[in-house]
């Protein structure tokens, strides 16, 4: 019965995509991040759902002229260059035949993200795109938060598969989407939606903590700290953050804090030592190979040549050393460039919102993009998720938001001035209004 329902929904969505190809971009986001056909279905777990969505989206794109040039965004150009660099390195990788599956997945993600940027051409579509990212990951976060409460903090919630199959990876995804729940909460006019988002935000944060990921704990701390520093209501948020931290201390079991304490005692932790060993291997691989070692570098003979301890075969467990070892110094530079450009786009959004009260949404979006990036930058330092599509979706949100904000400004500048209100010398035309600043509050 579940498979039949999934088939019906897929069919409706794909037919709709042929007429409205931007719907395909939303469907791809949900399927890629949330994998509902795997989590809720049975036989549908083996269906080529993502391929069907991608084909329908591209057919709809070819038949529809209502799309914009995705390469008007500088960050998308750099993203395409990075993808081309990774592709060019496959023949020179340590194991070309073993790289194909990972390269194939990377190319599909890049192609569909670029298509999505071309199809999302107004604010409504952008907000639906943000909702798709939040719901796809947030469902598992809310479920994990409830499980953490019921189990006293000892439950482990896994993702549906793919990048988020493992609990640490799901925790990173939850951290990345958390700020966008706040963004949607600020934009929603419905108080019940705002309340539901507030409860969901708390549960998802609890789920990330309950993953027992040390990287997730550090990422949450960095993200909350940055949010507090940038907030204009430091006392209010300080009290709320303090209460939340106190509840976390009480809720989490003793074994949780015992695991977190290994952050200070990393020299005695085999996992930490294995990661450091793989980081040194990545450093030496990049120094010896211009294009890096390719999508797979944790190979016996590779570690015998490049790792301090050849018997500790670990993946890099770091987005930075993953890019360095797999794609060389050039790949790491391009990857970091995407982060810098996205941060600058977010800062421009905040600036536009400060200057114009009608662009408050842009300031809110820019602020939350930056908070999300802080969480990803810190948590990602301990996980090999540099190719995960969610942070690139955040990159696209910032680029699209800046473009749409500038489009809105141009439209307002081209509009004829409003006729002055009649006055008899006694009536008050009312306040002009002003921007309230970004959403660090």
List the helices and strands and how they pair.
Layout: H1 2-19, H2 21-34, H3 36-39, H4 49-63, H5 74-89, H6 96-119, H7 123-151, H8 167-187, H9 191-210, H10 214-230, H11 234-251, H12 254-260, H13 270-288, H14 300-306, H15 319-355, H16 360-379, H17 389-414
Task: Write up this protein.
The protein has 441 residues and is an all-alpha fold. The protein folds into two domains: 1-66; 71-413, no CATH class. Helices cover 71% and strands 0% of the residues. The chain contains 17 helices and no strands.
Main sheet summary: none
**Roughly how much helix do the residues carry, as a percent range?**
over 70%
Q: Please tally the β strands and state the result.
A: 0
What's the number of helices? 17
The H/E string reads: HHHHHHHHHHHHHHHHH
Question: Keyphrases for this structure?
Answer:
single chain; 441 residues; mainly alpha; 2 domains; 71% helix
